[in-house]
Design brief:
The chain has 192 residues and is of the alpha+beta class. The chain has a single domain, classed as Roll (Nuclear Transport Factor 2, Chain: A). 36% of the residues lie in helices and 44% in strands. It has a four-stranded antiparallel beta sheet with strand order 3-4-5-6, with helices on one face. Helix 2 runs antiparallel to helix 3 and helix 3 runs antiparallel to helix 4.
């Protein structure tokens, strides 16, 4: 029995400590509101960036700068879906590739508007300590050529949101904060 206690006590201490660490990483209701607000703000920023990049009046230097800013919103391997009324398949591209393709669309005028932006899945804690949620947006796309050719569609997209605790050093002090990054943008529906 003495030998058994020798193993049980350290295991209990480890479980107690891991419970304590997990409690430290829980998101309070007040913090969750702030994180939700930040996530929605980042999605709105992306919406603005996409409009600027797609706008034919934007010069290349500005478009490139905005592409860099948009890329900073995402996790490294994120992909963005592209759909069309003219095909059933959805194509997925790495973020930078998607933004470059958007900038080079073969229309003389491009208008992109995102609306009805809202959470469809609350943040859920993952085994690695990160939180994951999903925000839905509707994108209205219109491309017009000088010869009168017009293409319009509305796409429903689901954006994966990643929330994780990070650390930074400010004046020699380590500060912890929750950060939000965007993940894959999946097309769920495309209509005219």
């Amino acid at each position: 029995m003495k030998n058994l206690l020798k193993y049980i006590i350290p295991v209990c201490i480890i479980f107690s400590f891991s419970g304590y660490v997990n409690a430290q990483d829980e998101i309070s209701p007040e913090r969750k509101k702030a994180i939700d607000s930040l996530a929605l703000e980042k999605v709105r920023d992306l919406s603005k960036y996409i409009s600027i990049i797609g706008d034919k009046a934007t010069d290349q230097a500005e478009a490139s700068r905005v592409m860099d800013r948009a890329g900073e919103l995402f996790v490294e391997e994120a992909e963005i879906g592209v759909s069309s009324l003219n095909r059933e398949q959805v194509n997925y591209y790495k973020v930078r590739q998607y933004l470059m393709r958007l900038n080079q669309l073969n229309y003389d005028k491009v208008m992109i508007k995102w609306y009805n932006i809202h959470y469809i899945s609350d943040l859920e804690r993952q085994p690695d300590g990160k939180y994951v949620g999903v925000i839905t947006v509707y994108q209205r796309f219109e491309g017009i050529s000088d010869d009168g050719l017009t293409y319009k569609d509305t796409t429903k997209k689901d954006i994966t949101i990643y929330v994780e605790k990070k650390k930074t050093q400010i004046r020699g002090r380590i500060i912890e904060f929750w950060d939000v990054l965007l993940g894959d943008i999946r097309v769920t529906e495309t209509t005219s």
